[in-house]
Every structure is written in C-alpha cells, then in structure tokens.
Protein: Polyprenyl synthetase family protein
Amino acid sequence: MRMPRRSARHILDDSYALAYPALRSAVEEFPEAIQHPVGVHFGWWDRAGNALRSNPGKSLRSALVILSCQALGGSIRQALPAALAVEMVHNASLLHDDIIDNDRLRRGRASLWSAMGVPAAILAGDALFFGSLHALTGAPHADRTVPVFLAAVQNLIEGEYVDTLMEKDTTATLDDALDMIAGKTAELLSCACTLGAILSGAEDERVQHLSRFGLLLGVAFQCTDDVLGIWGDPEATGKPARSDLRSRKLSVPIALALNENGPPAERLRALYRREAPPTEAESRVIADELERHGVRGAVVDLARENAGEALAALHSCDPDPVTSEELAELTKMILQRSS
Amino acid sequence: MRMPRRSARHILDDSYALAYPALRSAVEEFPEAIQHPVGVHFGWWDRAGNALRSNPGKSLRSALVILSCQALGGSIRQALPAALAVEMVHNASLLHDDIIDNDRLRRGRASLWSAMGVPAAILAGDALFFGSLHALTGAPHADRTVPVFLAAVQNLIEGEYVDTLMEKDTTATLDDALDMIAGKTAELLSCACTLGAILSGAEDERVQHLSRFGLLLGVAFQCTDDVLGIWGDPEATGKPARSDLRSRKLSVPIALALNENGPPAERLRALYRREAPPTEAESRVIADELERHGVRGAVVDLARENAGEALAALHSCDPDPVTSEELAELTKMILQRSS
Structure:
C-alpha cells in the first residue's frame, strides 16, 4: 500500500531521511582517515571532528531512484543500494567539480578543497567513487545495474571535461551545449531512474521508459539550473549572482544567445573572448539584455518542453499511479525553480 | 608449456607488450573527448593529438598479475582483464598524486596537470578509475575479484591521504610509516597478485599465499623507492636529487631517523618542523649524515627482509617452477634498484 501523494518538498525530505543514514553507515566502513574529509563535505562534523547537527537535506537523485523503483512495483529497501551509489557518485563529482571550477562555496559552506585543501578533496572524491561501486556490486541485479552505472559515470566525466573545454568557447552551438548537459547532468538523473527501475525487477521495456523519463527530466533540470546561474537569487541558489556569466560558462542560455545575430550577441561574444572576465556591472547589463531579448523565456520553454516529454515517457511505463503523481510533483518543482 | 626463464627486464617488457595494446583498446572505448588527456598521459599522442612513437615501457603491476595467474596454472589470456584494471587504477592514482604532490615531471615528461591543467588531470584520473572497474566487472570471477579490488583501492586512497597528513609530521613512528606505505603501495601490488591468482581459478588458500607475496614485495618495493627518493641518481629515477627530503615526505628512512636520538635526529626534526623547505645544500648534508649513521643500510636491510619473506610466501603456494623463478627475478631486480 502506497501512502497518499506527498508534496515535492516532502518527497525530497523523505528520500534524504532514507538514503543518508545508509550513506553514513557506508562511509563509516571506509578506511579511517579518509572518513574525516568525506564527513566534512557532508556537514556531519567540522574540520576539528566535532559532530555537527545535521542540517535537514534534500536529495533529488535518491528520490528518483526510490520513486522509479516504486513506480514499477518495487520497494524502498530494494532501491536503497542504488540510491546510495548515485548519491555517492554525485557527491564525488561535486568534490572534483568544485576544484575544477574553483568554486569556494557549496551548500552555503566552504567547499571541501577550500576548507581542507585540494589533496583532501581529490581523495575524498576518489573514495566516494569507489564506495559507490561497493554499494552497487554487492546488491542484487548487479549484472544489470553495474554496466549502466559505469557507462553513465563515464559520460558524466566526459560531460564535465567537455564543459571545461567549452568555457569561453564562442563557437559552440545550442546542440553542443545540449550534448554537454546531457552528459554532465541528465545521464546521472537517467541512471538514477534506470537503476531504481532495474532493482524493482521489472522487464527491460518498462525500465527503458523510465531511463528516458530521467534523461528528459535531467535536460529540463539543467536548463532551469542554467537560468538560475544567470538570473537566480543568490539567497536561494547559495551562489554569487550571475555566477555563470562571471565565470563565462557555456550554459544553454549563453549558447542560444551566441548563435543569434545583432548587437547583443556581438557584445556577448566580445566579452567571452576577451582576457579579463566581465565586471559586476557588465554582467548585470548582459543579464538584463539577454532577458529583454527573450533568451531567459526561451530556455524556460525548453525546460517545459523537455519536462512534458519526460512525463509522457513516464506514463508509457504503466507506473503505479500514486508514485507517478509524485514524480510529476518533482517535475513541476524543477520547472518552478526558474519561473 | 612455459618458456624458459626470462630476465627481469625481459619479463617487464613482455608484460608491457601484452597489457598496453589491451589498455589502448579499452581507452578507445571511453567517450571521445576524455580519451585525449588520457592518451597524453600515456604518451600515445601529444597535446595537439599527433601520434607519438610509443616508448617501450615497463610494467611491474601487470607483470605481477600475469605471473601470479601463470604461477597457479592460469593463462595470460585469463589474466589480462586484471592486468588492465590494475594498470588503469595505478595510472589514475599517479594522475591524482602528481596534482597532490605538485610533481611536474612523470616518466621524464611533463605530468598531465602541468601540461594540460588540473581539471584535465582530475577527470582523466576519474575516467581511468571507472575504466578499471569496467575491465574487471565484465570478466570471469567478478564476484571474487571486484570486492578484493575495491578494498585495495580504498586502502590505496587512504594511504595517499595519510601520506599527505604525515608530511612534515615529526612524531610519526616507523610503524606509522610502514602502515602508510602498505596502503599506498603494497596493497595494490598485493591486489595485482591476488587478482591474477583468482583468475587462474585456483582455490582460496593458494590465492592467499600470493596475496601475501605481493604485500611483502610491495613493502620491499616502497623501501627501495624511499631509498631512491633520498639517495637515488636523478638520471635513473627521473626525479630531482633528494626529492623526498626537499618536499619533506615522511618516508621509511626519515621515520627511522626521526625516532633516533642524538644531534643528527635533532637537526632533521628541526628542519622538518620549520617553515621554509630545506635548501639544496642542507638536503645534501642530511642525506650524507643519514647514510653515515646507517639509515640507508637499515632500510635496504628492511627491503631485503621483506623480499625474503615474500619469496617464502610464494613457495608456499606450490607455484609453477619456471614462473616462480621469474617472480624471484623480479624480486631481485626490485632489491637491486637501491643497492
């Protein structure tokens, strides 16, 4: 018997409450010294080792694993090893990404490399990468889950690498940007759904519909993330205002704008090509100009289209109706972030 | 039928010739963009993508996998997936280690981070980590090999982390240093032998003798490496003279010396504690002083003892006699590096 439908916030809180105790137990089986920086990253203790009151977190990726498993008739217990694996690999990639992007803030705290140095952050990420495999290889259906997981993570790494190559690249097309975010973000969300579906024991065809749901949801998610990267409220995002413009990321709105004609696109190209990064004032002018020219609206529309197709894929797998409504709630929440 | 006994050099050349074409094929299955920095690391092409004439390499870890498999009656073909996995994980850890240790040189070339930047080196390492799992999870006996491999790699990461914590630590004991090198080096050599042995299809007891052989050989290997880190010829090591002293690594000879009494130990402690690193002249004085006080000799003896115990463990597994002689050749070569 499934519970009545929960709000998106409630679903994310619940999935955190389910996945994080398991995650903590898994980390406590790591060799002793490396547990310390890993726990500092998760906010379980401070650098001196003092326990911190764990802030109630949210966890989209483990929610997707659990709901995808439930959607096809599986249980939370069946889904947990994959929820764990996906959370670990996501956090490993955050640890390495923050070094790569030189980001000093993560979840409103100092990122691990800025708190404890690059070596600790590289190695804590490596430990989480291998921990994720440990969670998955010891669980049922490993012959089906592990190849999916390894391929998704290789695509995630590829997406991050392409992301670094594309920084300041003014020749990239919208398709280049969409390919890159598919690898960087959507593959792991798709993987989360696929693993949950496999662990339910469902047949391949139903699993594939959920894979497609996750991939399209991931594109929608990254589009809204890219909108927040330019027009997001620093209070809500925990990042500096217009951070993607300041660091000249090649995000979806930027790729859209670079492929336009006219003076705003020219100004943007000039700014992305020059040596010095945009000033605070320049980035505000560009953000406003892009919004006036409809770029923000176009990316929000793109997110909406992908979310719509995601829900169509979801319905094709003949999901449990309550779970399906909850996945639709999460989809709606993702769209609302940027509107 | 086994071939007649080969020299250590010949064994290492052969294992490179066997493992590296397989490694190159495996890397060619990585997503496209990330293949580039991985191939630059291996010296297959330059940064512009021009093919380089591959320098004939040596490969101790894949040699240990292959010989351990053959020692228990297995074939080269059976051993290859593990040879591949171990080479990949070793190179992944070199890529991350060179960032951590700020090493600009690797195999006489620019290390990847210094040639292509930290992001490329982090992500190329991550890709090789996941590639190693791909090689192993798709091969026979994955239920036995994967847990051994994951545990060894977690210990490797732990060893590297402890290594960073111990830098400039003048309170570490010899046992601390030996624990650290067990994790950092010996675990992976032991893992190489264990995986080769498992892939031969042998029973657990014989496998365990080879695990122990690899672990003890790894301790001997690191002891000789630590001797070279202080007294090695830069021509032969490809590293600056006395590099471990200059960077104030806590190596085995240093741990030995720090736990002595008397003026040389005091001078060493003072030098390890102060802010500025030792000058060229100071490091030469210390190296000479430690040698006169028998520290170099003591570490060479330690290497020899561990190598002797390693060979005893090897003989306990009732190995194929020709292969056993070849493993003894490799052991002898490791000892000769530092004498």
Summary: The domain at 8-336 of chain A is CATH 1.10.600.10 (Farnesyl Diphosphate Synthase).
